[in-house]
Hints:
Two copies of one chain form a homodimer. By secondary structure, chain A is of the alpha/beta class.
Amino acid sequence: MSRRPAPPRGNQGIPEATIARLPVYLRVLYACGEQGIATVSSEELAAAAGVNSAKLRKDLSHLGSYGTRGVGYDVEYLVYQISRELGLTQDWPVVIVGAGNLGRALANYGGFASRGFRIAAVLDSDAAVIGTEVAGHIIQGADQIEQVVAQHRVSIGVIATPASSAQAVCDRLVAADVTSILNFAPMVLNVPAGVDVRKVDLSIELQILAFHAQRRSVVRVSEDGRPSYRRAGPADQNGDAVATAGGVVPAAVPGNATQPQVTGS
Amino acid sequence: MSRRPAPPRGNQGIPEATIARLPVYLRVLYACGEQGIATVSSEELAAAAGVNSAKLRKDLSHLGSYGTRGVGYDVEYLVYQISRELGLTQDWPVVIVGAGNLGRALANYGGFASRGFRIAAVLDSDAAVIGTEVAGHIIQGADQIEQVVAQHRVSIGVIATPASSAQAVCDRLVAADVTSILNFAPMVLNVPAGVDVRKVDLSIELQILAFHAQRRSVVRVSEDGRPSYRRAGPADQNGDAVATAGGVVPAAVPGNATQPQVTGS
DNA sequence: ACGCCCTTGTGAACGTTTGCACAAAGTCGG
DNA sequence: CCGACTTTGTGCAAACGTTCACAAGGGCGT
């Protein structure tokens, strides 16, 4: 925002892109542990996580030198280190606002309660659902936000309300000292500096998919349509461009003859 | 991930980062249209979308020169252009696999049906829910995947199953010629090249939030704890690092004295 | 004890994304 | 019709992220 001429930037230095991948590594490591695997090489771990092995090593190197050359990484030890770095060794109470279809789905989501996160409360403003039970939690009124947040020391809030009330809920959460918000409402939240907002937006993801799908069907017209459908390494799952190696789409919709009216002029 | 010495790449040249933001602009533009606003400047649009105005202009410039200098962008025209670029002017049938809490939430999600996407079918493998209705759709058996995909020319599939069956469902979708997959299951899907996978993962988002929250609480110990809570411009909502406005973040975390037990050895 | 072989950790090159700053280009009032 | 003002579109440089390639380091067989 404001100019930073010579930012001292005490940023202790883990790149944001790395942070976003650590949870994926962590999940794979848990799976390894459950399989009884004691050590993994960067190559194996990278393949399972769907990334380049050099990237994985660089990511892990930001945490420290926790690997053993010639062997790999100790699964259990690495799990601990990543967990600590992400702050998962402490308990994070979470409040879910909005007990509609989505809110209930979230409350029932198993991976929620596990690994450090704990649902402190589920709130809603609809009197019809207040008092009913979801995933072992009695739904409380939305007017309890401040009290619940203070009582459980909540610092993470999940907004699963309609877009129309998302900003109001967000404001109340922020006023109650919640500094991390996960927003499922399809809108851009306005928050003060120092509050961290992440959004999960089905509609946006679908539109990105549609773009690639459309492009694929157009590109297919080009030469060299080798229909090789070989099972390659896992395509990048982090939103990078599609590989479009041998894109064999049937005969879907070329009809863009609908040249539109230019409204202005 | 084979080497690509000289990728012919018919990439017509819209950066991936831009594609990811276009849906946000589109949503803001729709909101403007509903408010009766006819034209917007890049500054206004950028503020509403939570991005830098220069970035917005550069993004839009990739689609063409659709603005008018000294005035701004015509809302309706820009909506059309972005929609066309994203491929939203055509109809995208979508199949949802998994009718649990999440699948039902998705099926009921309003923004789904609107703007180009249409639910072709909702499937599940649980005999207890097959035949019941969700959001106007009779839930069909998961063994109908191939038939439904072929019949409705589905090219986008949404996986809302437990992680344990996600890969199997994915394989069947891919075999049935679905080339775009939105994965809600908490796992990395393995797909052939040419298939586009995007993932939405609550657990990962929470862990990223936890990391920032943890860092913030450590940083707070530092000097200059000015509790200025002024309402600033919308903090970046795309997952970038938290602004932490006054955050000078100096001597954070020297305490790595807690050298843990090395399990192996 | 020694040397081979495997894997990590990282320097350096490359590509992508962001943000500034400004010229080009249009509108609008007089 | 003209000049002042506003806003777009973009060249450029810095920041950020990815990938390659390889030296450093450690285990393991002999």
